Amino acid sequence: MERIYGKPIITQADMHKRIRELGNRISEDYTGKALTLVGVLKGAFAFYADLARAIDLPLTVDFLVVSSYGAKAKTSGRVKIISDLTTDIKRRDVLLVEDIVDSGMTLSFLKKKLMARHPESLKVCALLDKPERRKAGVVLDYVGFSIPNKYVVGYGLDYQDKYRNLPYIAVLDKVSE
Ligand code: IMP
Ligand code: MG
After folding, report:
1. Own/partner long-range contacts of 110-119 (Cβ < 8 Å, ≥24 apart)
2. Which of 5, 21, 122, 123 fits as disulfide partner to 170, beta carbons 3.0 to 4.6 Å?
3. pLDDT-based confidence at residue 174 (cuts at 50, 70, 90)
4. Is 99 part of a structural domain of the chain?
5. CA–CA separation, 27 vs 49, rounded Å?
6. Is 122 exposed, middle or buried (0-12, 13-18, 19+ CB in 10 A)?
7. Average of per-residue pLDDT across 21-35
8. Beta pairing partners, 39
9. How many structural domains are present in the chain?
10. Residue 161 sits in which domain range?
């Protein structure tokens, strides 16, 4: 069966406005700090690129590639780091940039891993939050949008590695497998 995505639930205009707001807040909060933005790939790539350019501060960029889901649209509960950071985050003020927080398992795993490297601080900025599905108790310091418990694609988020390049967020319908 073909996967069909519906109308945008978050448009490009909504997105750009919200990212400007987040960028302004982060710029205020991190003034004078040693900010490192850590993007969680692949899903965060689009949000990350826009957010980084909305922050008016010196910063360094780094990335992790993780895999938490199998091919299907539900969690396996397992998280694996496929590619690690390339820089030392010791004494850096790390802001972890995520596409979406669903059960919270990925984030709580990553926070533990990164805390063990002794950053000066560690906070989280997620584009999307699905609070209904939360299993692990994780604090989100900055959130773009809270959304209902629907599977969404676009703006970096995928279904079976597709739809990441949609320039808006849409609900994915008709996932039957
Ligand atoms: P968690 O560990 O359950 O919080 O899942 C987080 C990861 O699952 C995210 O970083 C996404 O890669 C993926 N994910 C969760 N919900 C969705 C969704 O609605 N669309 C696309 N990916 C999702
Ligand atoms: Mg992700």
Report:
1. 110/40, 110/64, 110/66, 110/79, 111/138, 113/81, 114/38, 114/89, 117/88, 117/89, 117/90, 118/89, 118/90, 118/91, 119/36, 119/89, 119/90, 119/91, 119/92, 119/93, 119/94
2. 5
3. low
4. yes
5. 15
6. buried
7. 98
8. 63, 97
9. 1
10. 2-68+83-176
* Domain at 88, CATH number: 3.40.50.2020
Which tokens in the block code for residue 43?
A: 């899903």
* Residue 111, preceding peptide bond in cis (omega within 30° of 0): no
Sign of CA dihedral 81, 75, 144, 12: positive
For the CA of 130, the closest atom of ligand 1 is: 16
Decide if pLDDT at 73 tops 80: no
Residues found in the chain? 177
69 lines ligand 1 (CB under 6 A): yes
C-alpha to C-alpha distance for 53 and 143, rounded to whole angstroms: 17
Q: How far is the CA of 102 from the centre of ligand 1 (A)?
A: 5
Residue 20 domain-assigned (yes or no): yes
Measured CA to CA, the distance from residue 79 to residue 152 in angstroms comes to 20
For the ranges 1-5, 16-20, 98-102, which has the lowest average pLDDT? 1-5
* Predicted local confidence at residue 177, as pLDDT: 47
- Residues, beta carbon < 5 Å, ion ligand 2: 43, 99
Centroid of ligand 1 to alpha carbon of 86 (angstroms): 24
The answer to whether residue 110 sits within a structural domain is: yes
